[in-house]
Amino acid sequence: xxxxxxxxxxxxxxxxxxxxxxxxxxxxxxxxxxxxxxxxxxxxxxxxxxxxxxxxxxxxxxxxxxxxxxxxxxxxxxxxxxxxxxxxxxxxxxxxxxxxxxxxxxxxxxxxxxxxxxxxxxxxxxxxxxxxxxxxxxxxxxxxxxxxxxxxxxxxxxxxxxxxxxxxxxxxxxxxxxxxxxxxxxxxxxxxxxxxxxxxxxxxxxxxxxxxxxxxxxxxxxxxxxxxxxxxxxxxxxxxxxxxxxxxxxx
Length: 251
Ligand code: MF3
Ligand code: CO
What we know:
Elements: H1 8-31, H2 38-51, E1 68-72, E2 75-77, E3 91-100, E4 103-112, H3 118-136, H4 144-157, E5 161-162, E6 168-170, E7 177-181, E8 198-201, E9 204-206, E10 212-214, E11 221-223, E12 229-231, E13 234-238, E14 243-245
Antiparallel strand pairs: 1-3, 2-11, 3-4, 5-9, 6-7, 6-8, 8-13, 9-12, 10-11, 13-14
Helix pairs in contact: 1-2, 3-4
The structure holds 2-amino-4-trifluoromethylsulfanyl-butyric acid (MF3) and cobalt (II) ion.
């Protein structure tokens, strides 16, 4: 289903959903340190969701077992929280969804656990910049290719691998709505987007090649060459003149 133009009431509920999501992700960043495990983070977000009378739409999505995806180092996305401790210097991606009053938002960020080498910091910064380059193209009448090309440009500039098999998407009533929003593409191409639609933009990059494979767990996606991977994502409302980032941390 192509993502619908949301009603004012649905938009207000998505704003609240996004605020809840951001407030929880921010806390996840604060508590993540060496020695912590993904399962502890998963328990933490379950508690936080409960406190806010919200639910985690990833749990049960095609059988996925948790409310959050945690992907470490060469894992790109959809890592399943486990009991392994994070090590200093690990690059960890947290991908999280919230459902509140029927409306879903989706957001992700990557961070380095503990002290970080400069190369890792720059890698994450460039990937996050590519997300904002894509977001800045968003307005009524934008084409998906305009967003894709803007993301690709930044990732190419930094010589990063661009994961092709996973893409951004419409969001709101479902976790994944059409259209797909690839992280590479051409200006002027692709579906037309309208004010009131809501999309998740989510560049996934690597410090090496772009090729990925799935683990035998049926979920975890990792780089084939073992290179580090990063992922940043926001849910964005398209407006007449621009956009509103519904999952922004400062809202
Ligand atoms: N945010 C993820 C994405 O857009 C959704 C994960 S669904 C899950 O791909 F089931 F893997 F959690
Ligand atoms: Co997503």
